[in-house]
Structures are given as C-alpha cells and as structure tokens.
Amino acid sequence: MPRRKGAPEVNAGSMADIAFLLLIFFLVTTTIETDAGLDRMLPPMEPPEEDVVIKQKNIFTVNINKNGQLLVEDELMQLTGLRDAAIAFLENGADGTCNYCKGRKDPASSDNPTKAIISLKNDRETKYSTYITVQNELVGAYNDLRDRESQRIFGRDFTDMEAEYLNPETASSVRDDLKDKVKRIQDMFPQKLSEAETTSN
Amino acid sequence: MAKFAKKKDGDLPAVSTASLPDIVFMLLFFFMTVTTMKDSSLLVENTLPNATEIKKLEKKDRVIYIYVGKPTQEYAKVFGTEPKIQLNDKFASVDEVGSYILAERAKKPQEIQNVLTTALKVDKEANMGLIADIKQQLREVNALKVNYTTYDGDAFNNLQ
C-alpha cells in the first residue's frame, strides 16, 4: 500500500499572470496627484470692530490690469522686479526698531516688517496665470526674508522647517520643537498680504 | 578527466523564474499604495499654472475641490467656451458654490469641520472675475482657508 501523501500541491504557476493583470490595472489607473499650491487665507466677512488707521507709507500697493501689466506704488513695473521691490519694502525699517532688517531705512517707506502691508488688487479680466505669478512673487519675497533670518538663527531654511512642521509624519517631539522656531520667524516677518480694499488716510 | 565530463553539450541552464511572482507582487503593492482613485472626472480643461513657493496639501480628507476652466470639447457645444465652475460631477453657477461648501462640510466628521481647506484648481486661462466671485462666496460661508493648486515650476512660464 503506498504511503499516504498530504494534500496535493496547488499549482502556483499562474500566480504571476494574475499578479501581472492586477499590476497592469493599477498602472493604468494610477495618477500621481499633484496636489500642492499656494496657501492663502481669505479675509473674514465681518469688518473689524474699529477702523484701523494705516499710514500710506506702510502699504505697498500692487495693481494688475487686464493686460497683465503691473502698477507697483503708482509706477509701472516688470514682474521680474516685483520680488526685489517687495523685499526692499518689507525690510525697510524706517523707525529703526527692527534690528534684523537690512533695508535702506527710507523714511518714505515702511516703518518695520510687522506694520508693512502688501495690498493686491486686480482687474476682473486679469488672467489667472498672471495673478498666480504675482502671488507667487509676493509669497516668495516673504519666504526669502524668512529663509535668510532662519538661516542666521537656526542654520536652516524656514520653508524647509515649515514643511517638516506641517508634515503629519513628523514625530510630535520634533514638531513641538519646530513650532516655536516657525512661530518666531513668522513673527519677525508676519505675512500681511491683503486682497480686500484697504482704506487709508 | 571525470571532473570535466559532466558538462553537457553547450546547453545553458534555464533561468529560474520562481521569484518572478514575488517581484511582480512587489511592483503591484507599490502601485496599489500610491494609487489614488479619481472621484470625479473632469468636465473642464484644467491646465494649472506654475509656482515655486508651494506647500503640499496634506490630509486629503480635509480638502474640498473646486474646478474652474473652459468646458472640454465635448461639452463646449452645450456650455460654450467661457470658463465654468465644476463642483463634483457637474457644472455649477457661482451662487451654488456656497451651498456646495456647506454640504461638503456637513459630510465631514465634526472634529475636522473647522480645519477644511478649499483647493481651487483653476485653469490658467480663466479670468480673475470668476475667481473673485468664488472667493466672495467662500467668505460668505466662512471657508477662509484656500489653496490655489498649482504645478511646481518657474512662475514666469505662466506668462508665455
């Protein structure tokens, strides 16, 4: 009598075929998402309690017309010069209280970075791509300044720290540490980018 | 010499394919994990502009999407060529945006309802007038956190 064998082995030869089939399905349906962009906050609907008086010299006005031309502080400007103009305005530091600013201290420009406001206005016919480019340059101006200070104090870029801070995979101990650093740099150059009508007198 | 006599007449030994399923499975799992199924098909053209100062949108469940752009060719006959808003799977007018946001917000769990981001996926050819109207709608329903979704690239390429 022959010895009794165990259960017969299942033929796994076609496993590769099945796996290939699935692989091809996922290959075809995959779209690697491109979800990144410029984060912005809209102003709340309720107007502030009291009217805040803002000096004209603390406002950096940027107007975009329907042809995509730029009017910065009442002068026509090329888009390529916007970032430098914004940086010069933000770190002007006319009142001398800002000890980390490297601006010209021009009395006709902003007092210090915490008071400086950038006001952006656009025409209804402005193209979205132009608007995004302008937004990108203005956010870039803030990021350049923040990176510079962050390099000086902590030895690494602000954008880098912020990305790590916002990444949910970062360990919470690291994140707590980063939180203070990010906050400190943000307070040095608070992002005041207004898109609503800014009244001034 | 018996030592060398074993060699047969020049035949190459067959390459073992036993580990092929393992390799394929490895690839399969990679694609399974990176795949995100599209939940709505695009009815509008959606070539996003480029930007460099971008931040990643983390946590997909906290994002509400709004698409804006010209209707694609098959819809252009019916809806014209002016940029339109797409919410979920259909075209919508500006004043539907507010209620859409509220409806989407109500679907999310209570604890994340206050931290939602609205991702605006706008075609680069769209005009700011429509975007301004959408922003006004978003302000009215207090959805203040927006993300202008863009590709990563030199922003000056937008102008060409």
Structural category of chain A is alpha/beta
For the secondary structure, the number of strands of chain B is 7
How much strand content do the residues of chain A show? 5-15%
Summarize the amount of helix of chain B as a percent range. 25-40%
- Uncertain segments of chain B: none
- Spatial gap, N to C terminus of chain B: 78 Å
For this structure, the quaternary state is heterodimer
How would you characterize this protein structure?
Chain A has 201 residues and is an alpha/beta fold. Helix content of chain A is 38%, strand content 13%. Chain A has 5 helices and 6 strands. Chain A has a 5-stranded mixed sheet with strand order 4-3-2-5-6, covered by helices on one side. In chain A, a hairpin with a 2-residue loop joins β3 (70-72) and β4. In chain A, α4 crosses α5 (172-188). The longest helix of chain A is centred in the C-terminal third of the chain and has 27 residues, at 128-154. By secondary structure, chain B is of the alpha/beta class. The model of chain B has no long low-confidence stretch (mean pLDDT 82). The interface between A and B is large, with 54 and 59 residues.
